[in-house]
Amino acid sequence: MTIFKKVVDESYLTTPEAKELLADVESERALDEEREMRYELARAIEHANRFSTLEAEESRELVEELLELEKVDEATAYKIADLLPEDRDELRTVFAQGRYSLSGEELDNVLDILAKYI
Asked: Which helix (H) or strand (E) holds 37?
């Protein structure tokens, strides 16, 4: 017997948003003493707590501002919001696998937006 899995819905999350969701799951599991937290869930919670630097609302605002820029697509905006690059070199690595590269002025625009949140 084979069980097929089907993707019903898909959306991007920043690490702080994932941290909020995982905190809800963690508190729910803590109330039920019979339910153990699986290894993968515990690692996901640990990762989100360690690497989440912004609040969830701030990260959503950052993504919204980045999406207003012409050459920043949704996936890249979420990646930038998670990594919070601090200089041009770090920012270039985010765009390295993309179809296009940004000019110095465009990189500076992204860094100016990031400076508000760092």
From this structure: none
Q: Quick one: which of 88, 81, 48, 82 has its CA closest to 62?
A: 81
Q: What are phi and psi of 34, to 5 degrees?
A: -80, -20
- Separation between Cα atoms, residue 56 and residue 8, nearest integer Å: 24
Asked if residue 35 lies in contact with residue 29, where contact means CB atoms within 8 angstroms, the answer is: yes
pTM of the shown model:
0.85
Sign (positive or negative) of CA dihedral 100, 61, 68, 115: negative
Measured between its terminal Cα atoms, the distance across the chain in Å is 51
pLDDT at position 1, please? 60
pLDDT digits (tens, 9 = 90+) for 80-103: 999 999 999 999 999 888 777 888
Q: For the chain, what are the domain ranges?
A: 15-51, 56-115
Phi, psi of 74, rounded to the nearest 5 degrees: -60, -45
CATH topology of domain 56-115: DNA polymerase; domain 1 (1.10.150)
